[in-house]
Structures are given as C-alpha cells and as structure tokens.
Fold:
Amino acid sequence: MNAENYNVSAIYLRGYLAALRRVSGNQYVRLIKQGGLEQYADKYPPPSLEVVAKGGQLIAVDRAVLLTIGRELADLFQRNLSREFARDFCAIPGNKEEFAQILQAATSTQQLMLEVSLRLSTKIKRYMSEDISVQSGPNQDTIILTYRDSIYCAHLDKAEQPACVSVVIYWKEALLQLTGKRFQIKEVLCSKVSGGRDCNFLIH
Structure:
C-alpha cells in the first residue's frame, strides 16, 4: 500500500489537526481545505479508530504548507507540528502508564529501546495503516526503524538529503515523554534521496 492510500483513523486525524491548528494559526482553515478536510474547521473528529481520511489528504496539506512558505520554513513547521503531535499522543490516558511497565521490566538499554519502539510502532499502525518495522541495529544499544512508503516525505518529488524530519522529531519527543530518557535519532536512508521505497532511522 502506498502512502496516498493509508487509512487514517479519527484519533490520528484529531491529533494531527489539533497540532496543525496550534502551529499554523489563522492559516489553519486554508491549509486543511487543500486536503478536503474543511469539515473539521470548527470541530475535530472523535477519538476513535474509525477511518475518516486517506493519507493522500494529509499529503495534500503538507504540500500546501511547502508551497506556501518554502522548504526551510516548511521543515521548521513540520518539526513543531510533530513535537506537538507526539505530546498529544503521549497524553492519551493510559499511554504513559503502559510504557512505565516496560521501563520497570527492561534489563538492558537495548531491550528497553527495542520493546518501547515495538510497542510505539504498533500503536502508530493502529491509528494509521503505515508500514513500519523495528529491529535491532548493527551495534549494541541501537535500533533500526524502517518506514516503507513514508507519508512524511511523500509531498516531495525528490530531495538531496533525508527529508523525514517529522519522523525524527516525533520519535525523539515521544520517547522522551514516555520513558523520560533522551534518545538520538537520525534518518540514514530516505526514499526521496535514494529513489527506493524505504526510509530508515537509527535510534541510539
């Protein structure tokens, strides 16, 4: 499944739109109209797993942001959006308590990173049908996170350097909120640079 056809749940879209409103101000309505989401101008969708949108609609909004303010400011916008989105996710009742149990049970840093990353990626995929995989990295205390057909760079035709800043910031903030620990995250392969389908991220 490509990014345009991802199923977007109401709870995912709710968090996305709430974060978008905070960082876009009076441009909010104009931007969501580009994705055919104007019905949410005054009221967010409910916090449910009902499918209410497609990935292509979010891509259209991201493309509108890029065309409006240019690449450099669009990257800053995506950073702020992803940080707010991660905080909204972590504030969902029960999330922090669930991850606290993983913290208590982990016997090593790599086990902690792997268990938290697996659980977080599983939750993300419940909210939007992304293709995400997690595996141990090449070195001790590293994790490789792979997004196939990443929606976060799908609004670009091509890029000269890794472009999924949204994923980097989201995971960095979510891991901090859920574990109280700061992890370094770097995109080491981007599909918009390589011409392939995978975007890979190193967590350590």
Observations:
- The chain has a mean pLDDT of 91.
- The CA atoms of residues 97 and 161 lie 37 Å apart.
- The helical segments are 10-24, 28-34, 55-90, 95-105, 109-127, 165-179, 191-194.
- The first helix runs from residue 10 to 24.
